[in-house]
């Protein structure tokens, strides 16, 4: 897997194009049309809801259970 400068650069350009087209502008990097890091999408959605990871309330933690010794 591994991250490198090339992948990160292409991913940032991909996101730039995506956001620009979402607000009605033309992409800055027309040669970049596919997400180079598709695997990262699973981290962008928590419980099938797109959220900012640092602002999302954790909903998948298990409840504390009592330990018996």
UniProtKB/TrEMBL annotation:
Its cofactor is Fe cation. This is Ribonucleotide-diphosphate reductase subunit beta. GO terms for molecular function: oxidoreductase activity. GO terms for biological process: deoxyribonucleotide biosynthetic process. InterPro entries: Ferritin-like_SF, RNR-like, RNR_small_fam. Gene3D superfamilies: Ribonucleotide Reductase, subunit A.
């Amino acid at each position: 897997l591994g991250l490198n400068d090339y992948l990160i650069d292409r991913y940032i350009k991909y996101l730039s194009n995506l956001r620009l087209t979402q607000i009605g502008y033309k992409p800055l990097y027309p040669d970049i049309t596919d997400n180079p890091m598709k695997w990262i999408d699973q981290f962008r959605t928590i419980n099938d809801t797109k959220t900012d990871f640092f602002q999302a309330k954790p909903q998948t933690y298990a409840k504390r259970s009592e330990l018996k010794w």
